[in-house]
Fold:
Amino acid sequence: MSGPSFGRRDERERRSSDGDRVRAADRRRVRWPVLGVVVLLGLLLALTTLLERSAPVTASSAPSVQSLADPLLDAPVRCTRADSTDRIEELRARILTDGRLTSAIATACPRLLDGRTVTYVGEVVGDVLRRDGGAWLLVNDDAYALEVGPFGPHREQRGFNGGLAVWVPDGLHEQLGEPGRHGRRGDVISVEGTFQRADPDDGGGMTVRADTLVVLAPSMPIDEPLNTPLVIAATGGALLATLAWAWARRRARERAR
Amino acid sequence: MSSVLRPDVDDLRLIGFYLGKVLGGLGLVMLLPVPVALVLGEHNAAAALVLGASVSLTVRLLADAHLETRRTLSWAHGMVIVALAWIVGSAFAAIPMHVSGRFSSALGAYFESVSALTTTGMSVIHDLDHLETSMTLYRHLLQIAGGLGIIIVILELFSAGGSRVGTLYASEARDERILPNVLRTSRFIARVTLAFLVASVTALVPALVSAGFAAHRALEHALALFFASFSTGGFSVMQASVAYYHSPAVELIVLLIMFAGMLSFALHYALWSRDLREFTTHLETRTLAIIGTGLLLLLSLGLVREGTYADLAALVRRGLFTLVSAVSSTGHQVNAGETYLTDWGVLAPAAIVGAMAVGGMASSTAGGIKALRLAIAVKAVVHDIRKFLLPESAIVVTSYHVGRRRILRPETARAATTVLLLFVLSFLLGTMTALMTTDVDLTEALFEGVSIGSNIGISIGVVEPGMSPVLQAVYVLLMILGRLEFVAVLVLGGYLLSFRRSARVLGTPRDVSRGRRTSR
Structure:
């Protein structure tokens, strides 16, 4: 009885050993292409990181406007519609009389300054939308507008843009130059006007209706320096793609034959 | 015994071959904005795009020459290729973004790329308002490519693969073949998109010009608005999103484009064929009409109760736009994100979260759980209740209309409820991760978690350039899971695990010397 039993066990062990060899061979055959892809992706990441860091910086982060007034609240706040009138009044008591409204304060507590006269400072970006006896402006008061200038000549990352819509009547917007876009910093302006949490003339949008407008810093072009290593890498990449294309065509022709 | 097929070299060859095609398609998408960059003198952007395109096209050409195979795609291959197409494709699409320096890290650029391709529309870019026109165009082109489906784009660009690519088409969370042939289906989708592009731009340009735009800027914004709205992506040219335009006409046109993007392509086909009855009897249109009306009432009630808007016109304009933006999974905003928390009370944001979770129609460009699944899940519950109430001998049959009258089968109900459950789990994962890695409260974390998990893009402020890498990585995963509706990514996970496992399919042992399968 024991003989055949041992025989079956031997057979099982032999099969198991064969199976292990198959699996090991398979793993080796599969491992290299997978590793190759991982290494390729790693190299790609290293190359792009290197190119990203190689961009030249030509501008210092000097503020576009000197002696800017402080925000009208000295600490961040957040209020909700459920807040009592007392809390809003308490916050109003903290408002600095000569402080300026910021878009962060406006969105964090829209009720606080609804219908009040405010001063708002920022860079005109995008387009000057002239119509109906005035113009809509998007005026950003983020770090790119007031502290470091548009991204490009410098590489300081200061987060999202932030701003408010400003309605400027005819007679005020004519003094504006080109608004800020890529390659240009727009006019940095100071407006005095009424803050509207839900402006009925803008279908409920948050706006500042300007009564006065002063250009603090005129619009100016911004030269972004050429990232030479990136251009060289792109040219090299294009050449490589062309060579790959020629090689692929040749192989396809050979296969067709 | 449960056995998982361990991938062999031939499997990898097949996967690599099709993945190469996907990367080639993305490379061509990268090349499209290059002439714009050169004309406008945006040299760094041009170089970044050329670099990305070169790398992607080189990989495609090498894959074509070296990995060509006539092996048939199995479902598992299709799922793995599609999942990898979105994961690896997003990495290659992120190359121009990463080298631009506008992202805090490589992960940030990858997040942006995934967000574009999955049509989520959340952004972590620094200083968007001074971004190059060509890069703006690139971000929007990625959205339309992702919205239509990378595979559809590849079918269009290369017109190759035909029936074999049908497996990929279905794996890309598209289970409806509108026409018998997948290539013809993709052509139809391209035709619909082109028709809407022409109609939308024709309507938007005059609306933008009358809003105060110069003609060339109107064209640029019109194209961007179309790509972002029809793809239900929601990226914008300016950080202020659609609020930037201050134009009811523009908002109305964008609303209609978002609505068109939310419809399934099968319904587009019915409308194209003037089959209006299909539109009114389709289970999803009915479900969306009911859910949409209910949520609009809830949202309006919330805004009225809070006194957010003094007049009805403002309430309807802001409320309806935001609701359609949420339910269509576009994510365009007409309010600053934080004001949902500070100025909208509780009920209105809850309605928006509900709309985001539901999403648009199945087999459309929209994300979310999809109205069809919700309707089927509800029908399944009603079916069970009816079974309990009727005598045991009674045979209960529940039917629904999607293209034709169909009987509700247990496996259909199970599939719908499984995906629904997975979506809920993904919302929870996003919420919990935000709570663990930031100091936001539950409302904010839940709002953002649902927005990300459903590929919506309306942000309350949790997503920002400086967010934690852990949260960023989890959000990336959720965006891909949501876009592919879990199955393809889960199959890929199983495939990767099977590398480590020694299980083999019964009856297909491998030849030791050649390492290939032999028949027994």
